[in-house]
Amino acid sequence: MLRHAWRLARKDLLVEFRSRTAILSAVVFTVLVLMVFNFGRDPTAVAAVDLAPSIVWVTFTFAAMLALNRAFQLELENQALDGLLLAPVSRSSIYLGKLIANLVFVATVEGIGLPLFALFFNVRVVPVLGPLVGIIALATLGFVAVGTLFSAMTARTRFAELLLPVLLLPFMIPPLIWAVLATATLLAGRPLSEAGGWLRLLAAFDIVFVALAFVLFPATVNE
Amino acid sequence: MRLLQTGRWITVIGLALLPAVYVRAISFTPVERMQGAAQKIFYLHVPAAIWTESAMVLVGVASIFFLFLKDPRLDRFAEASAEVGIVFGSIVLTTGPIWGKPIWGTWWTWDARLTLTLLLFLMYVGYLLLRGAVTDPGLRARYAAVLGICGMCLVPFVHLSVYMFRTLHPQPIVLKPSAPSLPGSMLATLAFSFVVFTVLFVGFVTQRYALSLLREQAAPHA
Amino acid sequence: MLLADGLRHAFGAVRALDDVSFTLHPGQTLAVFGPNGAGKTTLLKVLAGLIQPRGGRARIEGGRSAVGWIGHQPQLYGQLTVWENLQFWAGLYDVPEPAFVRRERDLVARLGLQAYEHQRVRELSRGLVQRVAIARALIHDPRVLLLDEPFTGLDRTAAEEFRAVLAAQAAAGRVTVLVTHNVEEGTELATDIAFMRSGRFVDMAPRHGRGAAEIADAYRRAVSGG
């Protein structure tokens, strides 16, 4: 199953790399948000460190949305999805393949966004880079997993790009809040253990919803 | 048709009892010392909140059974619960601020219970929008079931967050592990209100379910 | 090889399949003719395993990896080249590398795609895309071919070449189910003919060498009258 998932993910990334629209939009938006927030704030009134977690997560979320929206659209263009369903490939492989591709996409944007953010806002992330990346990874996995599942459903509806964020919103808010809180703890120089509760919630969320997505995905594609 | 009438009767009973709740709350229940008269909204707010959340659980459970049994009645029930859930959610979201303004000074706070209800409300909105966006009935039912199950599974996470949060909202005084710390008459009014809201919930869901059934019988899907 | 037994399916209140049963052996090509809405595509989807029928069962020896599908939608990725598409789909069917190379070269030659092998599919014309779709369906050497109006978009030469490919497949012992409303195109290849209307097989019989005109006649009678 892993082999097929990997082939599927590779195909997705190849297609995305060729067309480049989504990743470019994501990166441009990231830069835009960072610049606007930077110029918009009064450095004496609001310390970068206080605003930081929210800004970081807003940009990452948007990048995830872009990735998710195109994930299954691509399969509908030439009815390739039917082809995938006909092939001797398990439904879980299809989901896993999409999940991997989406994660790589979002991780790429995050990989560009985080250094930019540290640069623009003069926030020292290097000392806490390890745990910070960990938090980012946990939260990203959570909402990308749910988002991949939902995008399989919204892709065939009329207002797919609008519907997906609406559906996803309640599922993004808790992990985002936990991530922002944990990030804030880290950037304020506090020990990681203080954010332990939020991290545990993130981990539990990931486990539950990745498993749930695997279980429910076949219901979205089978007739 | 009979189902619809049954539903109507139940709702009527519930609505008839509702003023009784008001009367009891206003005249026969003591005014709470610290919060004053505004606290009386509590008697509407809390049962509505309980049912908003319970409705989501019902949607989730019905969805699970639907995916296994493929019985369209389960799907109809889920839809009905979701619609009533959103109505009750609206009640919570309006009574909450009305209660809150005199006491906390603001219309909205990001306190735990209001946030949970807001999230639930958003989930219901998403659920109903998804249903509206899919034309094929089989697909619609399956998609809604998937979303419903996810929604139900999110609820415990929000609760956990709630307990980890310092909150403006009054600490749970009724559903605490130890004995409820409300004086007897207040508890009685709350219980009475809860019963009335339960009746209303059942009535509304029954009516909605019946309407759904009638609609399907009138225009069978081509 | 391919078994359909009492297949029943409905979409809401509309009966799409109504007790369809037949068996096909290696070398047989069944052409199913019917008007739009007769249930032809549903039948194919049930045979392929895409749809679970409400009643009855369909069995194809070898499961999903033995099935090749050609429909009006090409099931290709526009941003990838012809070669990349073929490689991707072959990979999903676990076609070993040497077999893939051999078959790919063969199919590309047969279908006249040499000049376009490394072009992106989105740059190709409709007719060429359909040819690539044929290659895609055959790249894993399926024992059963399910064809849903496959001649759509093919020009005369391409259609000729396609027919030749299908004939070779049949000669090699493949089973083919061809679904179409175009009697002329389907008759030549068929060993067996079936007429479908409202989810039922109105008539099914071996071709017995009958020509397209004769079949068309029988079809008109079966579908309008009976």
Describe the protein's architecture and organization.
The complex is a heterotrimer of chains A (223), B (222) and C (226). Chain A is mainly alpha-helical and 223 residues long. Chain A has one domain (2-221). Chain A contains 8 helices and no strands. Chain B has one domain (2-168, 188-217). Chain B has 6 helices and no strands. Chain C is an alpha/beta fold and 226 residues long. Chain C has 7 helices and 9 strands, in the order βββαββαααβαβαββα. Chain C has a 6-stranded mixed β-sheet with strand order 5-6-7-3-8-9, with helices on both faces. In chain C, strand 8 and strand 9 (200-206) form a beta hairpin. Chains A and B meet through helix 6, helix 7 and helix 8 of A and helix 4 and helix 5 of B.
What's the helix and strand layout?
The complex is a heterotrimer of chains A (223), B (222) and C (226).
Chain A: H1 2-19, H2 21-40, H3 48-77, H4 80-86, H5 91-121, H6 129-154, H7 160-187, H8 196-221
Helix pairs in contact in A: 1-5, 2-3, 2-5, 3-5, 3-6, 3-7, 5-6, 5-8, 6-7, 6-8, 7-8
Chain B: H1 2-28, H2 42-69, H3 72-104, H4 112-133, H5 137-163, H6 184-218
Helix pairs in contact in B: 1-6, 2-3, 2-4, 2-5, 2-6, 3-4, 3-5, 3-6, 4-5
Chain C: E1 2-11, E2 14-24, E3 29-33, H1 40-48, E4 55-60, E5 67-70, H2 82-92, H3 97-110, H4 126-138, E6 144-148, H5 156-171, E7 175-180, H6 183-187, E8 192-197, E9 200-206, H7 212-224
Parallel strand pairs in C: 3-7, 3-8, 5-6, 6-7
Antiparallel strand pairs in C: 1-2, 1-4, 8-9
